[in-house]
Amino acid sequence: MKAFIIKFLTLLITLICAIGALIWWLGRPPSAVIASMPGMDNVPPGARNRIEKIAIGEFFKRFDNEYDKSLTGEWPRFRGKDFSNISRDGIKLLDRWPKKGPQVIWRKKLGEGHAAPVIYQGKVYVLDYLEDEQADALRCFSLRDGHELWRRWYKIKVKRNHGRSRTIPAVTADYVVTMGPKCQVMCVRTDSGELLWGKDLVREYGTEVPQWYTGQCPLIDGSTVVLAPGGKDALLIGVNAVDGKVLWQTPNPDGWNMSHASIMPMTLNGRRMYVYSSLGGVVGVSAELADRGKVLWKMSKWAPSVIAPSPVIMDNGLIFLTAGYGAGSMTIRVSYQNGKYKVEELNRYRPRQGLALEQQSAIWSAGILWGIMPKDAGARRMLFVGCDPNNVAEFKITGPRELRFGLGPFIKADGKFYILDDRGTLTMIKISGDKCNILGRSRVLNGHDAWGPIALADGYMLVRDSTSMACLNLRGEK
C-alpha cells in the first residue's frame, strides 16, 4: 500500500510539473518566426544580414593584356543593350547546327552559382565566387578564346544556399559595376580593373539581404549608378560612378525591402523613370535631372513574398509583373492624367490561368509576350508560350508539349528564340504563324541548374550552369 501511494504521488507531481511547463510555454512572449524556405538549412538565421567589415576590391591580379580588338559587339547589362533580352546587332547566326550541336570554343570552371556574364568589345566580365579563397571576384576574360585577363576580388564568407553568386555586372566604356551576393557594390575601370569605389548596402543602408542572396543587377545610366537598397531611409539611390558619392536618394516611408528583381528604365510621355518591383510594392522613380529620385507613382497591390523576374516594360505605359510560388502575374498600366500619374491594374492571374514566370523575365516582341510557365501552371507547366500582352490569359502560341524547359533562361536573336533548360540543353526555335519550329537542340553544358541569363555579341553566345561557363560560336566560324 505504501509503495502504491509513493507511485501515485510521483505520477501526480510529474503531471502537475508538465501542466505548469505547458502553461509557462503558452504564456511566454512569442519569438520571431522564420518561414522555412528551400535552402534555409544551409544558412544560419541572421547570417545573411550580419554586419561585416569588407575591404571591397582589396585584391587585384593581371594575367594578360591580349584580346581580339576587332570584336566590337556589346551585351553590356542584364537583358542586353536595350533591356529587351533581344539581340539587335544584325549578326547573321546559323539556321541549322551541325549534328554535334553548335561549336563550343571554350569553357571555364566557376564557383557554384548563377551569376551570368556581360560582353563589351571583345571582353567578358563575370562576378564569380572563388570558393577556395572565399571571395567575390570580378573576372575579365577574352571573348575570342576565354583566357583570363585580370581579376579584382575581396574576401567575404558566403555560405552555400542554392549556390552563391547571382548577379550580372553592368559595363560601359568607362565603368564596370557589380553587386555581390551580400549586397557589396564595386565599381572599377573597364579597361584596367582599377578600383574606383565600393559601397556596402547592408552596412550603409541597413539593407536586408534577400533569401538566397541578392539577384539585383546594377544599372548604369550615363555616369550614374542606380541601385535599390530597400533600406530604412532609401528605397533607391543614384551614385556618381566616378567617385561613389550619392547624388540622390528616394525615401522609403513604407519600409519596402530589396527583392531579387532589377531596376528597369521606362519612358512615358517623354519622361524618363526607373521602375522597381520591391518586396512591398512596385514604384516609378524619376530619372530626370530636375527631380531625380522623386517618387512619381507607386502601388502596393503587387507584393509577393519572393520576386525574381523584373518588370517588363511595353508600349503606352503597359507593365507586366510576375513572380513564382503561386503568385502568378499582374499587368498594370501607368498613365499621366491631369498633372498626375495613375496606376491601373488591368488583370491578375494565377499560374494555371495566365502567363507567369518563376525566375526569368518575359520577352516582349512582335506584339507578343513570351515566357516559360512555372511548375505550378498545370498542363502548361514549364512550356514555352506566347500571350497577348493586354490579356495574358489569351495564349496565342504554345511550344511543343514534349519540351519542358524548367527554370532556364531564354533570349531572342536573328529572328529566333534560344532556350536553355535546367540541364544545359539549348533549343533553337523559329516562330512561323502560330507554330514553333525546332531548328536545333543540343546539350551544350555538362552540369545542372543552368539558370544564369544568356549573353550574346559578335555571334558568340555565353551560357552557364551552376559550376561552369561556355562560349558557343553561332556564326559557324572555325
Give a description of the structure.
- Helices cover 6% and strands 40% of the residues.
- It is mainly beta and 478 residues long.
- It has one domain (53-473): 7 Propeller (Methylamine Dehydrogenase, Chain H), CATH 2.130.10.
- The strands form 8 sheets. Strands 1-8-7-6-5-2 form a 6-stranded antiparallel β-sheet, with no helix packed on it.
- Strand 33 and strand 34 (460-464) form a beta hairpin.
- The longest helix has 26 residues, at 2-27.
Please describe the topology of this protein.
Blueprint: H1 2-27, E1 59-62, E2 74-75, E3 86-87, E4 103-109, E5 118-120, E6 123-130, E7 135-142, E8 148-155, E9 170-171, E10 175-179, E11 184-189, E12 195-200, H2 201-205, E13 219-221, E14 224-227, E15 236-240, E16 246-250, E17 264-268, E18 271-277, E19 282-286, E20 295-299, E21 312-313, E22 318-323, E23 328-337, E24 340-349, E25 363-365, E26 368-372, E27 384-388, E28 391-398, E29 410-413, E30 416-420, E31 425-432, E32 435-443, E33 455-457, E34 460-464, E35 468-473
Parallel strand pairs: 3-29
Antiparallel strand pairs: 1-8, 2-5, 4-35, 5-6, 6-7, 7-8, 9-10, 10-11, 11-12, 13-14, 14-15, 15-16, 17-18, 18-19, 19-20, 21-22, 22-23, 23-24, 25-26, 26-27, 27-28, 29-30, 30-31, 31-32, 33-34, 34-35
